[in-house]
Structure formats: structure tokens, C-alpha cells
From TrEMBL:
It comes from the Eukaryota. GO terms for molecular function: oxidoreductase activity. Residues 112-364 form the Amine oxidase domain. This is Amine oxidase domain-containing protein.
């Protein structure tokens, strides 16, 4: 792969698939620039920092609470992350809470696969990769248009204000938002990637249904003795799906008891139908937080009032289909473009990692073939 050295590649999105892809490319001598509209990396693996009124800092892994893996290639990478102190196994009791019997059932020490968490937060993995040699990361930058320069056989990303972001030999799209009609629903503009440029990919991406989720972040002064596990799923609930004690993870500050609660897809869909797809106001999010907490408190026994409570809406939390399968990513050789993400392989962190690896390999192959 030495012939790819010196090539310039733009990666749109700094979630785990984009970060893994960028890391693999940089290790093979490619100069990588990551563009992300957020304040930091991670996507659903981001860690939310909140400051209470009295100045207390709270941290929540409000997207992916942990990840597991059975794939040997991913496990080899995870072992490397463990050696670097980026991840550690989360060894706690997990179970199921049955709404009908109002009891915790199926409590187990460890599941069939190990649960890994980032240190000191889930975003640490992406953050570290985004800072590796050969990678420049531009946060707070939204790519408004990806222009294909036919004569130069290169790409020109342009921001929302029409400013050029540089010229690149190839592009990796790791954010489905870049090709999604939802970009138009929120911004009123066409998606950054004109799918007419890549008609074969347009057919595969014409509908990638995404399942939404609402997340509730809670902080309590004291531990919750009525909950005998540190993570559990809800059985027979139309509103809640999972709950995790974030502060029980290794490497977390345990001065407060912090919990993250996820809604069901069905409940999130009902909320979106009522509120629309636009960014929610602070008051609307506060109302949703209150509704979710009432559901949590009303069914799980002896839950006190938290001193902190906030809701977050993930509009595209989990892909409902996998569009690439064994190929791991989508690509167009002539345009030197790959598309990766969990929506290509499986709706999991492992799926996103595999897709990022596959996209990097494909980009290296394409760059080599153009030389």
C-alpha cells in the first residue's frame, strides 16, 4: 500500500466508523482530514458533559453505553485499545425488569460476550484516533456540498457558507445524514452528496430507514438500592427499553449516581410525529424528560427525585437495514468514494468498526489503482 502515501482523503463524520477508517488510512501514509458538524467526535459514542447549577460536572454516555464483539478482526483492534488504556471490560450484573411482575429477572454477572467501555468515556476511543499522526480534525464544520471536479478527478468539500474546505483525492462518507433527505428536512438544502454522481449507490441508499430513540440522563445524590443491577432492559414496556448506571463503569467519577435511560423506538416515533424533525426547544426537551422520568419512577420501585434530569433525541439512532452486508461498505471506483457506517453492516458498534475497516481497505485499493 506504499503507493497511497501522500494521498489526501476527506472523511465526513467522526463517529466510530469514520474514526477507524481515518486511523487505518493514516497508518498507511494517507493524509486525512475529518469534518464533523459536532463539537467533538463520537456520533452515538459521544459522551455528554453537563454542568449543574451549582457547578458540578456530570458525564453521560448517552448513545452507546458499551459495546461487545465476536469478530476476530475487531477483537484484535479492541485488544490494542485495551493495551493503550482506551477501553476496559465492564464487569457488572445485568438483568431484565418486567413491568407486569414489577420484578428484576434473569440477573447475570456477565453475558455471553464481554462488555467494553471507553475510558474515561465512550468518546475516548474516537477522540484518540482523531488525534493520531496524519489526521487533522475539523469540528464544528458542516459539509454543505461535496463537489466532484471531473477534470482533476478529485473532490472539493464546501461548507454551509460556500467556503472551500480543500481539495482531496478521495472521500469517505461515514455519516448517512450526508446522503439523507433528513438533511433537507432540517436545513432546507439538498443533501451534501448529489446521488446523481453515484447512481449505483443511490439505488442502495435510496431508503435506509433509521430508528429513533429518546435518551434520558439522570443524576442522583445517592445510589439506588432498589435496583440490584447496573444495567437492564425493560420487558412489557411501550415507553422504555434500557437503563444503565453510567457511574458504575470503570474510570468514571462516582461522586453522583448517574443513569442513562433509553426509550423504545415506538415511543420515539410518536414523539417525532408530534414535534416534527426540527431541533427541539429546551422547553420541549424538558417536558420529554419529565414524561420519561415519570415512566421510569412510576414502574421501577423507590426511585427518588434526581437532582439533574435532561433528555436528548437521537433521530437516526439505529439503522433498520444493512445495505452492504459482506462487502462492509459501499463504493464508487471512478469517483474515489466510499460510504461506511453501521447501516452498512449491522446496527452496532462492532458493525460500524467493521465498516470503517472495510472502507479504509477499499479507499487504499482505489487510490493505488489510480496511480
Amino acid at each position: 500500500m506504499e503507493s497511497a502515501i501522500g494521498s489526501k482523503v476527506a472523511v465526513v463524520g467522526s463517529g466510530i466508523s469514520g474514526a477507524v477508517c481515518a486511523s487505518f488510512l493514516a497508518k498507511n501514509g494517507v493524509s486525512v482530514t475529518i469534518f464533523d458538524s459536532g463539537r467533538g467526535p463520537g456520533g452515538r459514542m459521544s459522551t455528554r458533559r453537563e454542568i449543574t447549577e451549582d457547578g458540578k460536572e456530570l458525564y453521560f454516555d448517552h448513545g452507546a453505553p458499551f459495546f461487545a464483539s465476536t469478530n476476530k478482526d475487531v477483537m484484535a483492534l479492541v485488544s490494542e485499545w485495551e493495551a493503550r488504556g482506551l477501553v476496559v471490560e465492564w464487569k457488572e450484573k445485568f438483568g431484565i425488569y418486567d413491568y407486569v411482575s414489577t420484578k428484576f429477572v434473569d440477573i447475570e454477572k456477565e453475558g455471553s460476550s464481554k462488555k467494553f467501555v471507553g475510558i474515561p468515556g465512550m468518546n475516548a476511543i474516537c477522540l484518540t484516533m482523531c488525534r493520531e499522526p496524519g489526521i487533522e480534525t475539523m469540528f464544528g464544520v458542516t459539509v454543505g456540498t461535496l463537489q466532484w471536479l471531473e477534470e482533476k478527478k478529485s473532490w472539493l468539500p464546501v461548507d454551509m457558507d460556500g467556503q472551500s474546505l480543500g481539495q482531496f483525492d478521495a472521500v469517505v462518507v461515514s455519516d448517512i445524514y450526508v446522503t439523507s433527505p433528513r438533511f433537507t428536512a432540517v436545513t432546507g438544502r439538498p443533501p451534501p452528496l448529489d446521488m446523481m454522481l453515484v447512481p449505483e449507490l443511490a439505488f442502495k441508499l435510496q431508503e435506509v430507514p433509521a430508528l429513533p430513540c429518546l435518551t434520558l440522563m439522570l443524576a442522583f445524590e445517592e445510589p439506588l438500592p432498589s435496583i440490584p443491577v447496573r444495567g437492564f432492559s425493560f420487558k412489557n414496556s411501550d415507553v422504555l427499553s434500557w437503563a444503565f448506571c453510567d457511574s458504575s463503569k470503570p474510570g468514571r467519577c462516582a461522586t453522583s449516581e448517574c443513569w442513562v435511560v433509553h426509550s423504545t423506538t415506538e415511543y420515539a416515533k410518536r414523539v417525532i410525529k408530534q414535534t416534527g424533525e426540527q431541533r427541539l426547544s429546551t422547553s420541549t426537551l424538558a417536558d420529554l424528560a419529565e414524561q420519561l422520568f415519570r415512566e421510569f419512577q412510576g414502574n421501577v420501585p423507590n426511585i427518588p427525585k434526581p437532582f439533574f434530569m435532561r433528555a436528548h433525541r437521537w433521530d437516526t439512532a439505529f439503522p433498520a437495514v444493512a445495505v452492504a452486508g459482506d462487502e462492509k461498505c459501499l463504493w464508487d471506483n471512478s469517483k474515489k468514494l466510499t460510504i461506511c457506517g453501521d447501516f452498512c453492516v449491522s446496527p452496532s458498534v462492532e458493525g460500524a468498526i467493521l465498516s470503517g475497516m472495510g472502507a479504509a481497505e477499499k479507499i487504499l485499493d482505489i487510490l493505488t489503482s489510480f496511480l
